[in-house]
Structures are given as C-alpha cells and as structure tokens.
Amino acid sequence: MTSATVAWPRSAGPLELRPPTRDDLDQVLVWRNHPEVTRWLLRTTVDPEAFRTAWLDSVDDPDQHTAVALLDGLVVGTGSLSVRDGIGQFDGDAWRRAEGDLGYLVDPAHAGKGYATDIARAMLDLAFTELGLHRVTAGCFADNVGSWRVMEKLGMRREQHGVRDSWHAELGWIDGFTYGILAEEWT
Ligand SMILES: CC(C)(COP(=O)(O)OP(=O)(O)OC[C@H]1O[C@@H](n2cnc3c(N)ncnc32)[C@H](O)[C@@H]1OP(=O)(O)O)[C@@H](O)C(=O)NCCC(=O)NCCS
Predict the structure, then answer these.
(1) CA 134 from chain center: how many Å?
(2) Rg (the chain; Cα; Å)
(3) Which H helix or E strand runs over 19?
(4) Which residue lies with its CA nearest to atom 20 of ligand 1?
(5) Average pLDDT of the chain?
(6) Cross-sheet strand order for the sheet of 135-141
(7) Strand 135-141 relative to strand 99-106, pairing
(8) Residues 101, 103: Cα–Cα separation, whole Å
(9) Ligand 1 mutation pick, 82, 150, 151, max ligand atoms within 8 A of CB
(10) Of 35, 48, 180, 186, which shows the fewest CB atoms inside 10 Å?
(11) Residue 148 gets which letter from DSSP?
C-alpha cells in the first residue's frame, strides 16, 4: 500500500518540507528541549545524539516519513507520519500498513502563525494522496489546546476522550484526546 519513495520537497503554506539533514537537526535541537515544547510531549527532553540518529535513520525507513519545515532556510518546525497496521481480520490484509500516526512541532519563537496547521496539512496530503493510507490519527493531552485546534482546523474528528488516561510528570493522570480522519474525508 505504501511507497518508500515520496516526492520532496513539499510546500506547506510559506514553508518548505524536506527530509532532515544533520545540520537541520542541529537547528531543531536549539529549541526541541525548550520547556514550552516539551510541556505537552510524551517524549519530553531528548538526548541530542539519539535524536539525530533516530531522525536520520527514519529517512531510509519506508514506514517513517519525517520532515523539517523551513522558512527562508531556517528550520521552524518538524512533521512526522508513521505508517502502521490498522485493525482487521486475519483473513485479509487491507488493514496492513493502512494507518498513519501524525506528529508536528513548531519552534516556540514561530508559534501562533499557522505553521503547525500548514505542516499537518502537508503531512495529511502526503498520507492520502501519495501513500494511499486509509486513516490518520494523532493523540494529544486534552490540555494541549493549540495541538487539538490544529487538528480540528484540518477537519480531524475527536474520536476518543480518555479520562485521566495519560500520565504527565508534573500534573499526574490527566485527560487525553485521539483525533482521526479518513481518506474519503480529506479533500
Ligand atoms: C501546539 C503547536 C504544534 C501549535 O503550533 P502553531 O504553529 O502555533 O499552531 P497554529 O498557529 O497552526 O494553530 C494553533 C491554533 O491553536 C490556537 N491556540 C494555541 N494555543 C491556544 C490556547 N492555549 N488556547 C486556545 N487556543 C490556542 C491558536 O489560536 C490557533 O488557532 P486559530 O488559528 O483558530 O487561532 C506548537 O505550539 C508546538 O509545537 N507545541 C509544542 C509541541 C506540541 O505540543 N506538539 C503537539 C504534540 S501532540
């Protein structure tokens, strides 16, 4: 169902998305561990070398589509789409590698300008028009209003409200949301 070869770069509003280089990731690392960024992430502070290695390895993984978002040559955000199996009976295989997990981050210095929405829109477009996925989902803490606003602006549906299902290091058990969208809903 999916192809390892994806056309890059892709435009995302004023941004250009392309697979990361080591230099790009060094730019991401300037802001990646900032408290404003880590506050609502599951993977909070990252080890710089492990982060670089994981993102560079993802470039050659046919099920990982990772991109940095550049504005006039400056890395202001990242996007990711991980392809995985959906749910299905073992009599068929339509569900294999049919779903994607969406992720996005924006440098706090560039937040509030619609960039996360631009990045997420481009990754959904990749998922449905190029990879032919059936469904894309993403999760977030319920308190991460900026994140779920991005998903709602793009027409994603809140499919799950998990009551105190998500552990937060400072806040303890708090609510989480899962959003989803189907290929036929993406126009
Ligand atoms: C959350 C994040 C992705 C938003 O990026 P962004 O580029 O500012 O997002 P956008 O500008 O595209 O859209 C954000 C929307 O949320 C709204 N918003 C942001 N914070 C809000 C808040 N605290 N309360 C209400 N609305 C809020 C914005 O007004 C905007 O909506 P609008 O266009 O209707 O006005 C970014 O802040 C980020 O990377 N945070 C840290 C990492 C993270 O949480 N990633 C998501 C993990 S699930």
Answers:
(1) 16
(2) 16
(3) none
(4) 146
(5) 96
(6) 10-12, 15-18, 64-71, 74-84, 99-106, 135-141, 172-182, 157-168
(7) parallel
(8) 7
(9) 150
(10) 35
(11) H
Domains, in order of start, for the chain:
10-185 (3.40.630.30)
How do residues 9-65 score in pLDDT, each as one tens digit? Answer: 999 999 999 999 999 999 999 999 999 999 999 999 999 999 999 999 999 999 999
Beta bridge partners of residue 169, listed in sequence order: none
61 Cβ contact partners less than 8 Å away, ≥ 6 residues apart: none
CA distance 180 to 48: 31
Tell me the residue ranges of DSSP E strands in 21-134.
Answer: 64-71, 74-84, 99-106
And the tokens for 57?
């390895």
8 Å CB contact between 104 and 79: yes
Q: Tell me which residue has its CA closest to atom 11 in ligand 1.
A: 114
Top mutation candidate among 106, 144, 160 for ligand 1, by most atoms within 8 Å of CB:
106
